């Protein structure tokens, strides 16, 4: 176990050490100051929710689509922006921000919808760049051209790849295959939009070898960033039903740490790591309980990574 000093790992405060290529440092190098990401909910939908592909969604998916909830509360994009900008100006003294369209699939629907959202973004104060979350089958050349010609210095596509194993993609009712992810990444490569591939570790039925194979395939694709997520069980999902029936067992904390470090050490060194743990929303988590201790988990991964890379 990595917890509370066992194995020699202190947990009280982060230890400065050689680490992976972080998004925070990348942004600081690009802008000369801290840049804070602001999550936005643009009221997007998802073909895996609205009946186009299915109504069930991915088996792990929280029906509110990983959002902040502010969109559901009726706040438009500028109002959400002001809410978070004020919050982070006070809490982090941040003065430059990245707009992150997080909830559901933000390039789903007509290209004009995406263009209209980006027009709204032009009015947001202190905006350094944009990050658009979506799924691989909701992209086409027209949408990529709209994103590619947007005026900001920093433009990211946050792509829900999750795994490049087709059997797992079917098992989690993802509604697209690995080839769709590869095609979307190659489409983005033709623009100046960078791709951050989201990977989930601990998906049902996946072995460490499956994860390693996904990482190897991803290394061969033109991705610029990766987000690692530990799979956790959300309330009212198919995964919760599988978990309660004993058909899905989440990774242990130790197993996640080792798998995350495997991925971090196997990914191409130029790939920017946007995050290494997921962040369950309040009230949504069923299991595992360690998923709530994000700070500890990041420290455990740092220590294990340092040890794996030969640190003292
Ligand atoms: S693609 Fe995203 S929003 Fe759609 S069902 Fe899957 S996890 Fe949920």
Automatic annotation (TrEMBL):
InterPro entries: ELP3, Elp3/MiaA/NifB-like_rSAM, Radical_SAM_C, rSAM, rSAM_horseshoe, rSAM_sf, YhcC-like. Residues 30-275 form the Radical SAM core domain. Gene3D superfamilies: tm_1862 like domain (3.80.30.20). SUPFAM superfamilies: Radical SAM enzymes (SSF102114). GO terms for molecular function: 4 iron, 4 sulfur cluster binding; catalytic activity; metal ion binding. This is TIGR01212 family radical SAM protein. Keywords: 4Fe-4S, Iron, Iron-sulfur, Metal-binding, S-adenosyl-L-methionine. The keyword 4Fe-4S applies. Its cofactor is [4Fe-4S] cluster. It comes from Bilophila wadsworthia (strain 3_1_6). PROSITE patterns: RADICAL_SAM (PS51918).
């Amino acid at each position: 176990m990595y917890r509370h000093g066992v194995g020699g790992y202190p947990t009280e405060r982060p230890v400065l050490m050689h680490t992976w290529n972080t998004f925070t440092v990348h942004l600081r190098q690009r802008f000369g100051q801290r840049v804070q990401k602001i999550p936005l909910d643009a009221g997007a939908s998802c073909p895996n929710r609205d009946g186009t592909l299915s109504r069930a969604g991915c088996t792990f998916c929280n029906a509110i689509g990983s959002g902040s909830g502010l969109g559901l509360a009726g706040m438009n994009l500028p109002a959400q922006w002001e809410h978070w900008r004020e919050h982070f100006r006070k809490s982090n003294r941040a003065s430059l921000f990245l707009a992150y369209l997080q909830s559901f699939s933000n390039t789903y629907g007509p290209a004009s919808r995406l263009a209209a959202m980006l027009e709204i973004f032009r009015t947001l104060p202190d905006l350094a760049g944009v990050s658009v979350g979506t799924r691989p089958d909701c992209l086409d050349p027209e949408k990529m051209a709209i994103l590619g010609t947007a005026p900001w210095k920093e433009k990211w596509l946050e792509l829900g790849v999750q795994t490049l194993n087709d059997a797992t993609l079917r098992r989690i009712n993802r509604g697209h295959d690995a080839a769709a992810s590869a095609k979307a990444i190659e489409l983005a490569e033709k623009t100046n939009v960078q791709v951050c591939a989201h990977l989930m570790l601990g998906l049902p039925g996946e072995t460490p070898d499956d994860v390693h194979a996904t990482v190897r395939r991803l290394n061969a694709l033109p991705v610029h960033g990766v987000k690692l997520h530990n799979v956790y069980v959300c309330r009212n999902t198919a995964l919760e039903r599988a978990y309660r029936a004993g058909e899905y067992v989440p990774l242990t904390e130790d197993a996640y740490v080792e798998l995350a470090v495997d991925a971090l050490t196997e990914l191409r060194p130029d790939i920017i790591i946007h995050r290494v743990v997921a962040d369950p929303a309040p009230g949504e988590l069923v299991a595992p309980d360690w998923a709530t201790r994000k700070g500890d988990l990041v420290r455990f991964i740092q220590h294990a990574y340092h040890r794996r890379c030969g640190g003292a």
